[in-house]
Amino acid sequence: MHRALLRVRMTEETLAGRYPEQEMRTPTHFGTGQEAVAVGVCSALGEGDMVYTHHRSHNHYIARGGSVYELAAELYGRADGCSLGRGGSVHLTARDKGFMVSSAILAETVATAVGTALAFAMDDAPKVAVCFFGEGTLDEGAFYEAINFASIRKLPVIFACENNLYATESPLSVRQAPGSDLCDRVRAFKVTSERVDGNDVAAVYDAAMRAVAQAKSGDGPVFLECMTYRWREHVGPMMDHDAGRSYRDKAEFDLWVAKDPVRRSAARLVEQGLATEAEVEAWAADTKAEIEATVERARQAPWPKAETLFENA
Length: 313
Prior knowledge:
alpha/beta, six-stranded parallel β-sheet, two-stranded antiparallel ribbon, 8 strands
């Protein structure tokens, strides 16, 4: 899982570093700092399981086995992109890897994941559907319709909430009643709910394994509230404080950066004697070099042909 964390982190940091060159003509929502949720959950899934996600989707796509080359080509609008250069950062797909789609319409993918879980149940297939979303999705009515239906039918679906404390730039404190607890809210629908340290990949993996076991056994859906934090701005490659934004203070930001999921994973490997510091550093350097070369190769890929403009529309 540490190698997967590195792959996700290096991909996003390479793309963020090149975004200001103005060659990627798509809005991007980077998930730097939130990698452990994607890696921990996806590592618990099997080949036939299916993942849906939202606009901050790069992490989940890579963690599920999506091609870094096809992701980068998609952001550059090239024909080799995973959505043929037509979807941009927000609309990714890798169905052969069990990554159905990402969408910026937040609760939409919660409902479609529940629909996939219903199909799995009707086919008596030992599979689970997973939907990633931010805590702002719990402000939308469609979420409750979907989770109520999943609970009544005991569907094999995992609701993976990435609670990064902010919906765009609005904190939980201005959107929800004082003392509001997301897990308690979901438990009202008789859905098993668990809060987990979303910056600890091992903790997320353990919780996801329990959730997968329950969902596939016919005991119904599971809601995981993964506490985490995004480092970069809501849309774009900048750090908020470098861009002069003040909706969250620097002390809070620094507190969460100190909980960096990649550094914590590396430290655990060294502490447990599973790797040396030199090995961990070499993995990071090798991954960085490989991804930088892959992204440059994608930048030079061909454009879609004009005569294919209306294909797959």
